[in-house]
Amino acid sequence: MIAVGSATLARDTRHHRVLENGFSFHRSEWIQAGSDPQLSPTVFLVEQPAHSVLPAHFHTQNQFQVFKQGAGSLGSRAVGPGSVHYAGAFTGYGPLVAGPQGLSYFTIRAVFETGANFLPVARDKLRRGPKRHAHGVTHEPRTLEQLRALKAPVRAVLIEADAGGPEAFALQLPPFSELRGPAARGSGQFQLVLAGELNTPERRLQQWESRFLSTGEHGGACSAGPQGLHLLVLQVPVMAAEYLPVR
């Protein structure tokens, strides 16, 4: 399966929401692929207002978050443009606190999920199993001038791969360079354009647009655009056996 997101979809779907706990935000969809419980890649953007607080919570699917604009904190850690966070299923994290300029971030999952389970109210919904957090070093999008000046590809590891775990790294490619990345593994691979353009068999992806490859899917011939490419690659691990549905 290959799924491709777009800024056009995001503009068409941007809307305001208020949760039952009073948390107010804007949300836009960047990848929509249905709600299949096995594979339904999802990317959406949350725009959190200045000084707002999203309380600690957990989800039932593995997920990455990539911070787009603004600044704030996630738990005790400062976050800003380019920060990457991973939270495994049934792993509590937060709160997410926006600074004076607000905070926006992508939520990225291989399987669709709705809502959040806020703590401590939903503590009884937590399940026994591995709890996994990972924080990548801040890696801000490069300027087009920096990309055009590249003489060779540059790779930066943000979350180091280990057996069965998440992985996040960034690639900086000179103009028109061929993209050579690892095959999708686990629950699949997301590719998010931080700067420049990514030419794919599906279409050309601009800044903040993304693509998903399921495990075993060949992504085809891809390359950087005329301004170069700064690409974030995220490998989503499979769900821990303890959280799989009982058959």
Structure in words:
The mean pLDDT is 95. The protein is built from two helices and 18 strands. It is mainly β and 247 residues long. The strands form three sheets. Strands 2, 3, 4, 5, 7, 8, 9, 10 and 12 form a nine-stranded antiparallel sheet that branches.
Short description:
InterPro entries: RmlC_Cupin_sf. This protein has helices spanning 7-13, 144-148; strands at 2-4, 15-18, 24-31, 42-48, 53-54, 57-58, 63-74, 77-79, 84-87, 96-109, 117-118, 133-135, 154-159, 167-173, 188-199, 204-205, 210-213, 223-236.
Helix and strand topology:
Elements: E1 2-4, H1 7-13, E2 15-18, E3 24-31, E4 42-48, E5 53-54, E6 57-58, E7 63-74, E8 77-79, E9 84-87, E10 96-109, E11 117-118, E12 133-135, H2 144-148, E13 154-159, E14 167-173, E15 188-199, E16 204-205, E17 210-213, E18 223-236
Antiparallel strand pairs: 1-17, 2-3, 3-4, 4-10, 5-10, 6-11, 7-8, 7-9, 7-10, 9-12, 13-14, 14-18, 15-16, 15-17, 15-18
Give the CATH superfamily of the largest domain: Jelly Rolls
Strand content: 35-45%
Radius of gyration: 17 Å
State the helical fraction: under 10%
Compressed to H and E, one letter per element, the order equals EHEEEEEEEEEEEHEEEEEE
**Contiguous helical run count:** 2
CATH fold-level label of the largest domain? Jelly Rolls
Tell me, rounded to a whole number, the average pLDDT: 95
The end-to-end distance, rounded to whole angstroms, is: 25 Å
The number of E-state strands comes to: 18
Query: Could you describe the largest sheet, including whether it forms a barrel?
Result: 9 strands, antiparallel
Q: Output the structural class.
A: mainly beta
Q: Given the C-alpha coordinates, what overall shape results?
A: globular
The overall number of domains is 2
InterPro entries: RmlC_Cupin_sf
